[in-house]
Design the sequence.
């Protein structure tokens, strides 16, 4: 019976991971997680960290931490980036490190097009030793399970100008099964499924205020399509107030502040609309972005995505 319960628990975790890569409410400041062609598009070195605590109050709820950096290598044609993500849900802990390269070209005086490639390495494990087990001699929970490091790769296309963008990407193409040996048998506990993303946004000037609607459409194997719709208002290019809706999941409030020419800080709160809403305190997300090098041209052209 214990083995059956363990199998059902592992199967549940696997199903959850097959349907969902880490999600971000402030993905517009972390676009490299979605599209490798975004690398270098800011025209300066940028470093962004995001921490997300999802479904607060539910034991074992997802917790994600990410750190990314990207920069133009050749101001006209090349961009590159690197990112690291740690994603925890229940006893499962997944870590990935990836590198992006983007080739950029001008399609008009103010519009550029980039083609990007992503190469990543992923690892997953289950912390069995943290389980409160009624039988301390059960060998199933005597040691943590750790899978092999497996590669993955993806691609993306990103078209952008100063006020708008459109992106299409598949950051993971391989269907990796992460597994480990339990009593001589192979047990799978995480599954990487291909995800496809379509993103778009545009900035409309309204005097001292700028309005930016945006969308992200995601399709993944084994899950219904997901769409994020957001509306953001930039006030004096310093304060950004926004709201977003994710179908079947949550509504979100977003605030970010351009502290100075180098630092941006942001916070997002998701109020659940699914069946989990009554048991959860919502989801919290923190963002910190740093541009260590600025040119005068860059300062005069603030980022909106």
Sequence:
């Amino acid at each position: 019976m214990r083995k059956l319960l363990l199998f059902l628990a592992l199967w549940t975790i696997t199903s959850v991971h097959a349907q969902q890569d880490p999600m971000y409410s402030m993905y517009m400041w972390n676009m490299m997680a979605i599209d490798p062609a975004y690398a270098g598009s800011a025209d300066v070195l940028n470093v962004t960290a995001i921490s997300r605590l999802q479904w607060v109050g539910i034991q074992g709820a997802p917790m994600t931490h990410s750190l990314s950096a990207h920069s133009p290598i050749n101001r006209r044609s090349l961009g590159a980036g690197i990112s690291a993500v740690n994603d925890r849900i229940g006893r499962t802990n997944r870590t990935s490190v990836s590198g992006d390269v983007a080739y950029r070209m001008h399609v008009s005086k103010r519009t550029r097009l980039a083609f990007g490639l992503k190469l990543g390495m992923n690892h997953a494990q289950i912390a069995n030793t943290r389980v409160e087990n009624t039988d301390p001699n059960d060998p199933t929970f005597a040691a943590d399970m750790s899978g092999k490091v497996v590669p993955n790769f993806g691609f993306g296309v990103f078209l952008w100008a100063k006020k708008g963008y459109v992106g299409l990407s598949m950051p993971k193409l391989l269907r990796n099964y992460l597994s480990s040996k339990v009593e001589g048998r192979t047990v799978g506990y995480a599954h990487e499924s291909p995800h496809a993303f379509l993103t778009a946004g545009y900035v409309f000037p309204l005097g001292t205020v700028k309005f930016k609607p945006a969308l992200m459409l995601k399709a993944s194997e084994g899950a219904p399509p997901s769409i994020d719709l957001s509306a953001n208002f930039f006030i004096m290019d310093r304060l950004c107030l926004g709201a977003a809706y994710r179908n079947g999941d949550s509504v979100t409030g977003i605030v970010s502040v351009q502290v100075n020419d180098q630092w941006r800080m942001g916070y997002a709160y998701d109020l659940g609309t699914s069946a989990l809403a009554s048991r959860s305190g919502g989801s919290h997300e923190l963002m910190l972005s740093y541009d260590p090098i600025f040119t005068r041209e860059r300062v005069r052209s603030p980022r909106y995505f």
Observations:
- Confidence is low (pLDDT under 50) at residues 1-19.
- The longest strand covers residues 92-106.
